[in-house]
Design goal:
Length: 287
């Protein structure tokens, strides 16, 4: 804690300096605006130029799914990402207008979850799991390899940085991610949230090379690849209405042999989980 009451100057490291500058009894870390977001504020593009009538209709459709409008905020943020490839200041204002919330309420949610991007994303988002099991199985090495492959030895790509121009074909935003809930298939990578299991450095390089060349390799499980914006539209809850188109665009195998192996062995051997009420609760020491 510091007694300084200096006001931080705006600039690239404002977030680091804001904590010290808060001073007194205030012990919070304020979040400085992302430079890309700050640019959006300055540009002040009219909302209807970005979010046209079709997007407004979709927003109303999302809101109608919930008894209380503010409950629609998470899919609404996916909807704005499907338009711009990130949550801009205009995207925050759009959600706030539609849901009758303040910009601060929307911004607080948008900056809490890592799935909401604060800078424009590439055509594809490549997420490398570097949590414990994947890291031990090669995830750390894969992430490092992709950093230099998509950047260079001297200037490796950083977290949430993009190789190429965001939104342009073949551009890739790279991130390392926490556990992606596929530890039995470690190390894993996701592209636009679809799984590529049992990865190696060579497989990962071949994957991003294919993406940069405009190809869409088939994920190991899940839906066929689309783009980051396409995936965001699905996350907002919009899918092809035609059943055949839905099956082509969205459907895919959801489980892996490895994931089911334990259940299959248990079935073959007649193992069942004990019924909960038959298990005595352990003694808890009184404190
Ligand atoms: S540690 Fe990578 S999926 Fe769990």
């Amino acid at each position: 804690m510091t007694s300084s009451t200096a006001v931080p100057e705006p600039g690239p490291n404002a977030a680091d300096r804001t904590h010290a500058a808060a001073g007194g009894d205030v012990d919070v870390i304020a979040i400085a605006p992302d430079p890309a977001v700050a640019e959006g504020i300055l540009a002040e593009t009219p909302l209807e130029d970005i979010f046209d009538v079709g997007v407004v209709d979709r927003a109303q459709e999302i809101i109608a799914r919930y008894p209380v409008a503010r409950s629609a905020l998470l899919p609404m943020l996916h909807l704005v990402q499907s338009v711009q490839g990130y949550v801009s200041q205009e995207g925050i204002a759009f959600c706030a207008n539609q849901l009758e919330l303040s910009d601060a309420e929307v911004g607080a949610v948008a900056t809490f979850y890592t799935m909401y991007k604060r800078r424009p994303c590439g055509e594809h988002l490549v997420s490398v799991c570097t949590n414990t099991l994947c890291a031990a199985m090669g995830g750390d090495a894969i992430y490092k390899k992709l950093q230099t492959h998509l950047g260079s030895e001297s200037e490796p790509l950083g977290q949430n940085e993009t190789a190429g121009t965001p939104n342009e074909p073949g551009s890739i935003t790279l991130e390392h991610a926490e556990c992606l809930a596929a530890c039995d298939l470690a190390p894993v990578i996701q592209v636009n949230y679809e799984f590529f299991d049992n990865q190696t450095e060579d497989k990962a390089v071949a994957l991003v090379d294919a993406l940069q060349a405009g190809k869409k390799p088939a994920p190991t499980r899940g839906a066929p690849l689309t783009s980051f914006k396409g995936a965001e539209l699905q996350l907002a809850g919009f899918f092809p209405e035609d059943d055949r188109q839905y099956r082509t665009d969205v459907d895919g195998p959801s489980q892996a042999v490895e994931t089911l192996r334990g259940a299959q062995i248990a079935q073959e051997r007649g193992w069942v989980a004990p019924v909960a009420q038959d298990v005595p609760l352990p003694e808890v020491e009184k404190k």
